[in-house]
């Protein structure tokens, strides 16, 4: 048993030694203090107020020591200025401020020599500087480190009581109790503030989760509406177009071909709509994992437009771009072709997709329509512009001199933008 007890004492001594070294050796990052979240102006005012408080205390102390004959007032004032610096340093790094102030409190009676008469272990003015620092340390540092600060502070008081150049009065026990009480106050305030901050963070997380759930519910509602309205109508169009040749046997071959193309277009629109609905559905439902269209699918858009009777001249370069960038280019071409068919029916369309330096350039230009088209709400142009800006690019759209309309998108394909979009 004696060997086990000795081993326990040895481990405790080593742990205490490591704790004392951790407290005395600068390093690590300080804990957050409540004023760190304030505005810069408020922090500057706080620093000015703390510095003014420290200067008042030091001026009063140097005057008292000068009147008692213990030290020259000017010398004492200059010597005590680092204590004011330690007090200000405590606002940002409490443990470093405590180290500096404790060192100066220990050296003060040895540097400022004077007549020998009893003074407290720490005088009132010294407590006026040390106590706020101890409160800040108890607030900011972990509990184990605060215990180490208390041990070192007690050791400092013992040295001042028995080894100082100024004979001190016998109030060591009271001083030790004051140190323990002040540290405990700081630790209690810090624990309370940490609890309030944790509660605020938890409330923020709860609000964020509720907002996310609300967004999911809204997305699910939109998905249901789109499915019930748009998908149903498209399905009806596709079914009627596919069954028309069987219901009307006298249809000419041209009409049969037209209806077949109409049905194929409706089916493609249904497929893309199902992909969109998969993204909008709730989290417990899986979205369609089919590959997204890219630059290689633009040729299919051109083919479909030509089959619909649109005169399209296409200049498509074979480029290797990130998948998100290719999807954006595909959607811009898709929307631009749809706009040309809607607003300028019968107009020829010039389409070009090429790379110019670090830019992927998508250009869609149509001439004046052969007959009046339908007006729109401008949502398509807004969507194309938002897609381009997502990649750090630009999109310009406007009428041409001959009465047509031109859309031009410039999308960066540099490594940093490509990595960010991916």
Describe this entry's structure for a reader.
- This protein has 422 residues and is an alpha+beta fold.
- Among the domains are: 1-169, no CATH class; 296-412, Histidine kinase-like ATPase, C-terminal domain (Heat Shock Protein 90, 2-Layer Sandwich).
- Helix content is 66%, strand content 8%.
- The chain has 12 helices and 5 strands.
- The chain has helices spanning 2-24, 40-68, 73-89, 94-111, 124-140, 143-163, 172-247, 253-280, 298-307, 323-343, 379-390, 415-421, and strands at 312-316, 349-356, 359-366, 394-399, 405-412.
- The protein has a 5-stranded mixed sheet with strand order 1-2-3-5-4, covered by helices on one side.
- A hairpin with a 2-residue loop joins strand 2 (349-356) and strand 3 (359-366).
- Helix 2 (40-68) runs antiparallel to helix 3 (73-89), helix 3 runs antiparallel to helix 4 and helix 6 packs antiparallel against helix 7 (172-247).
- The protein is elongated.
- 24% of the residues are buried.
- Residues 415-422 have low confidence and may be disordered.
- It is an enzyme of class 2 (transferase).
- The chain crosses the membrane at residues 45-65, 71-90, 146-164, 176-195.
- GO terms for molecular function: ATP binding; phosphorelay sensor kinase activity; protein dimerization activity.
């Amino acid at each position: 048993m004696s060997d086990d007890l000795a081993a326990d004492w040895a481990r405790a001594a080593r742990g205490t030694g490591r704790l004392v070294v951790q407290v005395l050796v600068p390093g690590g990052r300080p804990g957050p203090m409540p004023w760190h979240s304030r505005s810069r102006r408020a922090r500057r005012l706080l620093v000015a107020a703390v510095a003014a408080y420290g200067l008042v205390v030091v001026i009063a102390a140097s005057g008292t020591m000068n009147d008692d004959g213990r030290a020259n007032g000017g010398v004492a004032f200059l010597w005590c200025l680092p204590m004011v610096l330690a007090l200000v340093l405590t606002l940002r790094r409490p443990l470093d401020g405590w180290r500096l102030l404790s060192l100066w409190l220990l050296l003060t009676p040895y540097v400022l020599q004077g007549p020998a008469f009893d003074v407290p272990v720490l005088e009132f003015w010294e407590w006026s500087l040390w106590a706020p620092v101890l409160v800040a340390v108890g607030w900011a540092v972990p509990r184990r480190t605060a215990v180490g600060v208390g041990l070192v502070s007690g050791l400092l008081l013992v040295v001042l009581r028995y080894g100082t150049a100024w004979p001190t009065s016998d109030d060591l026990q009271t001083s030790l109790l004051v140190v323990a009480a002040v540290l405990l106050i700081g630790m209690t305030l810090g624990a309370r503030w940490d609890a309030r901050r944790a509660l605020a963070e938890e409330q923020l997380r709860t609000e964020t989760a509720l907002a996310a759930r609300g967004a999911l519910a809204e997305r699910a509602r939109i998905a249901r509406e789109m499915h019930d309205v748009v998908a149903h109508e498209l399905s009806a169009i596709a079914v009627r177009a596919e069954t028309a040749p069987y219901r009307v046997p006298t249809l000419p071959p041209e009409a049969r071909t037209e209806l077949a193309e109409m049905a194929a277009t409706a089916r493609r629109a249904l497929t893309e709509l199902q992909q969109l609905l998969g993204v909008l559905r709730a989290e417990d439902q899986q979205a369609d994992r089919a590959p997204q269209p890219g630059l290689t699918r633009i040729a299919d858009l051109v083919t479909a437009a030509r089959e619909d009777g649109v005169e399209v001249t296409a200049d498509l370069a074979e480029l290797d771009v990130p998948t998100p960038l290719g999807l954006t280019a595909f959607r811009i071409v898709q929307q631009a072709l749809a706009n040309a068919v809607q607003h300028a029916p019968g107009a020829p369309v010039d389409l070009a997709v090429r790379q110019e330096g670090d830019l992927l350039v998508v250009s869609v230009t149509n001439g004046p329509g052969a007959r009046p088209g339908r007006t729109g709400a401008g949502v398509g142009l807004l969507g194309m512009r938002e897609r381009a800006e997502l990649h750090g690019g630009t999109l310009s759209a406007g009428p041409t001199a001959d009465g047509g309309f031109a859309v031009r998108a410039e999308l960066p394909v540099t490594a940093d933008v490509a990595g960010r979009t991916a």
